[in-house]
Amino acid sequence: MIEVKESQSAAGSLMTEGHKLLPRSKRYHRGPYHVVKRIFDIVASAIALLLLFPVFLIVSIFVAFSSGFPVLFKQQRVGYLGKPFYIYKFRTRVRNAEDIFKGRPDLMEEYNRNFKIEHDPRISKVGHFLRKYSLDELPQLLNVIKGDMSLVGPRPIVVPELAKYGDSQDMYLAMHPGCTGLWQCGGRSATSYEERIALDREYFEKAGLRFDLYIIFRTVIAIVTARGAK
CA torsion 210→179→177→57, rounded to 10°? Predict the structure, then answer.
């Protein structure tokens, strides 16, 4: 079973809006790079899924024993050209997470302001560990295989976050969201929202296979050291 959380806004219409927002000159088109990037995504993700199967199994057991089922969580995010998709993660929140959220208007205010909560009471003890080392994000490899995401790209956002991007919306919509990116290896939770958008813009301007490999290497270092994790 998978826990599902719908977006706070209807995302189905975003694909059409995305086409309107995206001038042709900003559609991030570099044919050879994107072909190689997609091949690399599929091959690397398939190998990772095979090698990490024991980790998937262990994490699933820990999540189930610590807070029950479902083990996986999925939530609607904004994808390439505004197409909505469901992102997969290991569930890190307690089972009554939404009840806690609804009963704390201060948390709702903090989330609506930054789309994150500094000290989130909804996160389980196992969830804190999974988030610290990004183990909760391993199921996103399935999103990469499906073509919803890339291994490297901007941080996948929920629909209401798109308004935060302002004039940079077309830049975000031109790319496939990534399992990792400059935000994940450059500070993670320690960065402000404006800095996150700036990092997405930097990736948009510099993206290439060599830069992608550099980001993956830096991400491994950030995960091992738990830098910027909450």
Answer: 140
Instruction: Give the distance, in angstroms, between the CA of residue 173 and the centroid of all CA atoms in the same chain.
Output: 14
Q: Where are the alpha helices (DSSP H) in 72-104?
A: 97-102
pLDDT for position 227: 62
- Checking DSSP bridges between strand 178-180 and strand 150-152, what pairing results, if any? parallel
Q: Which residue has the tokens 């491994």?
A: 220
The b/e string for 173-192 (b: 16+ C-beta within 10 A; e otherwise) is bbbbbbbbbbbbbbbbeebe
**Tens digit of each residue's pLDDT (9 = 90 or more) over 114-151:** 566 666 667 788 888 898 888 999 999 999 999 999 99
Give me the amino acid identity at 185. Answer: C
Q: Is 136 exposed, middle or buried (0-12, 13-18, 19+ CB in 10 A)?
A: buried
Query: pLDDT tens across 24-61, in order?
Result: 444 455 678 889 999 999 999 999 999 999 999 999 99
Say if residues 180 and 150 touch (Cβ distance below 8 Å). no
pTM listed for this prediction: 0.79
CA–CA distances in Å: residue 107 to residues 4, 113, 144, 195: 20, 10, 32, 22
Is 18 in a helix, a strand, or coil?
helix
What proportions of the chain, in percent to the nearest 5, are helix, strand and coil? 60, 10, 30
Residue 159 vs residues 6, 78, 140, 150: alpha-carbon distances, Å:
10, 6, 18, 19
Model confidence at 70: pLDDT above 80: yes
